[in-house]
Amino acid sequence: MTRVGVVGAGVMGTGLTQNLTEHGHEVVLTDRSKEALDRARAEIERYERFGALLGATGPQREDMTRRVTYSTDLAELGEVEFLVENITENWELKRELYPRLDAVCRPETVFAVNTSAIPITKVAARTGRPDRVLGMHFMNPVPMKATVEVIKGWHTSQQTIDTAQSLLASVGKSGVLVNDSPGFVSNRVLMLTINEAVFLVADGVATAEQVDRIFTECFGHTMGPLATADLIGLDTILYSIDVLYENFQDSKYRPCPLLQRMVDAGLHGRKSGEGFFRYADAA
Q: Domain 3-hydroxyacyl-CoA dehydrogenase C-terminal spans what residues (predicted)?
């Protein structure tokens, strides 16, 4: 396998493209926004120049940029052997996208859904290849995280799982295979934790700084839940919690109203310059 399609040129898609190309894969990176593709190109070029300072260890980093094809046309994905989709965590967008991907890609191409909460079986039903669809939940920043949550849908074949694990191994990663469920393992736990941390701030029990200090200094976590939320993006957090609430119909997944207000106000975390904390280095 050498040619991989990446759909969505946001933070995750860009990081995944970096990781794939520095390990020798050719990548077709698509996005409906030319501006997003231009930002991704600039970031990948910067990563190639300064990768050593960022801890990148790929053996072929010097050839990264020439291995990427950038396009707003999904038809460019027609010859990829494996595809990873990374668009916004929004079911309506994914529901519309997958029949289009199914039409342009070869029948044997594997589709990996890089989602934090949307059920894989639900996505696979929008294609004519449900046995070749699985979840691959990459963590951010992709080049620095060695483990991926791999999700088996209802119809996912063992051959598809083996292909996905082989791709991960080729970029220095391993996959933990779990069964399909909204939020899977990571986000059924993480989203509840973040949502409850937001409630603590909303209820005046503690400030964001105090909440995160307890997790970093008492439990030894690298980041507190609210700094983690800012890194992921509060809009993405809200989408994910909404998916859990809709699928489980359990009140424990009810999004905190403060989270909704912050998203409405454009306070999306690091990418907007402010969330629960302020960031001077926002794009």
A: 183-279
Annotated catalytic residue within 48, 85, 114, 137: 137
Cβ–Cβ under 8 Å, residues 33 and 93 = no
**Entry pTM:** 0.89
Is 137 known to be catalytic? yes
Report the C-alpha gap between 7 and 72 in whole angstroms.
Answer: 10
Catalytic position from the list 22, 48, 89, 149: 149
Ranges of residues in the chain with a pLDDT under 50 are none
Catalytic residue flag (residue 187): yes
> Using H for helix, E for strand and C for coil, what is the string for 194-251?
HHHHHHHHHCCCCCHHHHHHHHHHHCCCCCCHHHHHHHHCHHHHHHHHHHHHHHHCCH
Q: Which of 86, 114, 116, 240 is catalytic?
A: 116
Residue 90's φ and ψ, nearest 5 degrees, are -140, 120
**What whole-number distance in Å separates Cα of residue 28 and Cα of residue 11?**
16
Annotated catalytic residue, options 114, 187, 195, 240: 187
pLDDT at 52: 54
Distance CA 277, CA 275 (A): 5
Q: Domains of the chain by range and CATH?
A: 3-179 (3.40.50.720), 186-272 (1.10.1040.10)
* Start-end of H helices in the chain: 11-21, 34-50, 91-104, 120-124, 158-170, 186-202, 208-213, 225-232, 234-248, 257-264
Q: Which amino acid is at 237?
A: I
Distance between CA atoms of residues 185 and 244, nearest Å:
12
- Note the pLDDT tens digit of each residue in 154-189: 999 999 999 999 999 999 999 999 999 999 999 999
Q: Report which DSSP code applies to 256.
A: P
Tokens of 4: 């991989």
Query: Would you call 221 a catalytic residue per the annotation?
Result: no
